[in-house]
Amino acid sequence: MSLQAASVRLQRAGVRVDTQQASWTGWTELVVAAPPAAAAAAALGLHCYGLAVQSVTVNGQPASFELVQPVREELPQSVTGAAYDSQQRQVAAVAEAAYYLYERQLQRERQPELSFRLPQEVQQQLQQPGSAAAARGKGSSSGGSSDGSELRVRVEFSGGAGAGIGPSAGLHFWQQYAATDGQVRRTSAWLPCVDSSGAAVQWEGLEVTVRADEVAVGPGQLQRQTWADGERRWRSFHYALPVACPPCHLGFAVGPFRMAVSSLPAAKDGTAAANAAEKGAEANGAGSSKDAGSQGEPQLTSFAPQKLPAELAVAAVLAVQPSIAPANGTSAAADGLARSAHFTGLVWRLFEEVLGARCPLPAVQQAFLPPELLLSASGQVGQGLQLLSASQLIQPRAIEQSIAARCAIARCLARQWFGVLLRAATPLDEWLVEGLSGWLEEQFVQRYLGRNELAYKRWRERQVIFLADNGEAPPLAVRGVSVPSSWGPLFGTERFDPSHLWATKAVAVVAMLEKRAGEELFRKHVSTVVAAGLAALAAEQAAAAGKDGPAAAAAAAVATAVAAPAAGAAGAAAAGADGGSGTPVGSRLLDTMTFLNDLGRAGSFRREMAPFAARWVYGRGVPHVTAGYVYHRQAASGQHQGLSVLELALKQTGPACVKRAADYAQRAAAAEGSNAGIIKAVVREGEQYMDHPVHLGGEAFVLTELKVTPPVEKKQPGRRGRKKKEGEDGEEEAAAAVPEDPVRWLRLDPAGEQLIDIKLLQPERQLVAQLQHSRDVVAQAEAIQRLGELAVSSAPGARPAGLEALKRTLADRAVFYRVRCDAALALAGLRDDQGQAAGLPALLEFYRRNYFLPTTDGSDPATPQSIAVSDPSEYFVAQAVVTAISLCREPDGSTRDDVLLFLCACLSDYSSIPGAPFSDYGLVAAMCGALGNINFEGFGDALLTLLEKFLERDAVLVSPGSSVGRACLAAMAALCANGTCDDNEAARVATAVRRVRQSPGLPVALRHAAMAAALQMAAAQRGAEGVLQLALAGAAAAPGIAQQGQAAAPPPLRLPSAGTPAFLLEEAVQLVAAASASGPALSGEGPAMSDARARADGAVEQPIPPAAQGQLFSPARQPMDADDASSRWPQQPGAAQQAQQPQQPQQAAAPAAAPKFKLKLAGGPAQPEAATAAAAPAAGPAAAPAASSLLALAQRVQQQTQQAHVPNASGAPVCRRVL
């Protein structure tokens, strides 16, 4: 039968989620356009991927339906079982077959899975025009339309593994939590709909029913909460979506959450526009602006799990007193929920100031979920909904994690503007929405992290694009391919790229537009586009509410007046340039050429936009340019002054697609009457900059001359009539023979207006001058990049200028810290004539001078000191120096002895300082990762022992993002890959990696790092085929979210081994004591500790929902289980034997103010896993007590420590401990 997708005009849905059974049931009602009378017998279709449908009704009458289940197609036996003459041919054949198999799967997903026919009575009514209106009017009593052009369809469905359907692809479960999948075409996997990115649907509401002790965080605005049954075991959350959106902007999360409400700061410039629009609307009789969707201050609410992950639980215990007091008296400030909510309000207000408009969304819910639920690290964004990982809660003492978490929150808020409110007109315009959301996120970086940070970030992202885009990746927008898919020619798969090349390039292209137009003009143009979108949204909302035409026009005028102050300047500029009115067209859909042409009109460069789009939007690849120059100075002759010329040569290379894109741009420029392929050369002459346009285009070689102002000859000071000394004439003649070079340095495309990889070859003195005298951080970074490639003279007494400049840059604290880090890495790459690391002495001297304990006798420092991180810049510089030292090599590629001993000493003798302003986990992770760069045969056992110690430490005292553990795993895999470890040690590493992968209680980030380490080892041993086989086997065997049939209870806490818990928990006691508010160790409890103690004691409150509508309430605080690490580290080999050894007297424990964490380079290879399994039961009772919290364990260790201190002969206490 013929099948066509239903044209949905209105939809509402209800879902009942059972997290214990990992299933859900629901219903949805759709108002669809009635088919014409000739097609009344045809079937209508809905996307319903992997769901079970119980019934379908049309206008209240049962309808026959057919449901197609997803088909899993395997590779044919003729491909997998065929004989190939080489491994490369086999991989190529399998890849080709897999490509076509995946394409067929995408084609199948385009077709609706659920098809239904209209009942006979409805068909007859459609075929009889005289009685159709009356019949549909009768159907309106069931909710149908009274005008006879719409039908109401109701579908009842169910899904999930608990319902016997199989693994779910749309709604994932983990323990007591559930969340929707935000990937492309996966909304239909939990809700029947027309899953298209371009079809916006008006949603009447979404009702999510959950258990009484759970919370449903949904899109839009929460209207009310009701009990779903008389026994009050289930409750329903009713959400209203004020903005029409496609189904992919829906989603929700379920779980035992606690919440924090964001407090918005006072608006600076945005309130004036809002008040003016309000007064204007009242004067025109259009009512208040609240009728147009502007309901005053929005409600921003953040949710976090009641039970935190391991890393956040440790951070909450070790955190200092919170500076932001939580509103509900819980430990929200300690784990970052209050900080995340506060920061959300700051960024929300910042974006409104940048765009010059108030966001029309009345509420935004932000939920931080367990990492096991999210398939994307960037999170999921819906209309007024943001789903992030719980690891992205802002931790106050973690520098890197805090920055990354803030960027993730800002990225999601930016997508509320560009992605939800303003959408792409066609799939070819998705890049523009992605680029503008990235540009808006960069405004946060510029405001809160600084302009230098933004400039350096853009430069680094461009370097990544130059390395990744080899011409084989698709362009930002694919033209000329006819594919009947609403998700575009690539079916939306460009968003699945793990390298994020497509999104990064889109942001870079938008940044190029900003550089071309200027920051202020570009911001005003974006404000104009936003104002037009808000006006169109106001008109849509007024029409959806049933208002007449004049009221809708008045509402649109109100929304336009709100953003008029920001959009007026850009509109006037556009009107002056084009001779038109400059009024923005009211549309929420962004079109590429419309956006570019309007920007060109505002900046008087509209003719350049068509070549720009042909080269960078629709073209592929990135050109690579190598340039060099020679300075020529001609002597003056007669009355003519000498001519100074800079001869510049450029060589352009790249794949064939780059040449085609350049040719397309040239033809587009010829049609528009403009120039394309012009790059700017900036020459620093003395104290001024001179700009020179250079035409590059698609030419392979370009040779051009740049005029340079000749130097002015200065007269030498002296007395008139003074006799010249002997030899003075020769010196003056020599000075006159070598004139001063006026060119201090040269840069090509310094503003980044072209996406071209430029390698400019300059003399060393020009690079040194550029590094020391330029105020631009990008210019300094480019100079360091070139200086690191130069050879250094090893002649006695020689002091190369480049080496000295890099040393001064590293030591100068006034230089931007990112530039100093680059200088450290450049010093590691310098080589002298014999191939030795020329920068290693400078790096070792710098680190010893700044981060070692000074000596009293004036000798070289030899003991590393703990770094109380108070200056984040020095914190990053220390990491870069450690990494740079590890990269220094001998001419044969091996690591020097002094480097090996230095890194081992730094890591083994390092200790954290409690109470420091910032955590030093990043520096410890850098030290562990630096060991992976060592290439020294015969030293693998000692290195692995040191790494295993810190890996166990991170399993108990989890670092933010498991950074230390991930660095240890990566270093262990690298040591196996570079040949430092022998076969036995490689087997030891493989055992450790496998145990981490098979420990479900460990953090997700650590298990992912273990999988990456296993893949790296497989690549070194078996090549690409081994990596692919291991990846497929791991994906099939891992207990993933989709294969989890029922939520399992977390396993109890078990300590790593009988030998390691002593000093690990001893350090935990000391850190807790230093972080406590008052009193000795664990005697005084702050808010975080008291709340943890209260929840551990089982204090429970019964949830009582408020009777008033529109009010959010916090669910009951569930009794906090014991801090469960769920077997964070399996039993170590020989633990039972080690526990039976007699206790040896050890050195007294360090005081609580400055604990020491020392590790000795000792130990042998791990025993086989069989011995481990045999020893584990014996060590279980001693090493793994009953489930108890980290706090209780720390108390027990402290008591044992106090009892074990006995005085020795000298009167000093000695701690007897099995270490």
From TrEMBL:
Nucleus recorded as keyword: yes
Q: What is its main location?
A: nucleus
Which Gene Ontology BP terms does the record give? transcription initiation at RNA polymerase II promoter
| Ranges where the Transcription initiation factor TFIID subunit 2 TPR repeats domain occurs | 769-933
- List the GO molecular function terms: chromatin binding; RNA polymerase II general transcription initiation factor activity; transcription cis-regulatory region binding
> Which UniProt keywords are present, listed alphabetically?
Nucleus, Transcription, Transcription regulation
Which residue intervals make up region (Disordered)? 127-150, 278-301, 711-738, 1105-1154, 1199-1219
- Please name one Pfam family that this protein belongs to: TPR_TAF2_C
Q: Which SUPFAM superfamilies match?
A: ARM repeat, Leukotriene A4 hydrolase N-terminal domain, Metalloproteases ('zincins'), catalytic domain
**Which InterPro entries does this one have?**
Aminopeptidase_N-like_N_sf, ARM-type_fold, Peptidase_M4/M1_CTD_sf, TAF2, TPR_TAF2_C
- The name under which this protein is listed is Transcription initiation factor TFIID subunit 2
Q: Which organism is it from?
A: Chlorella ohadii
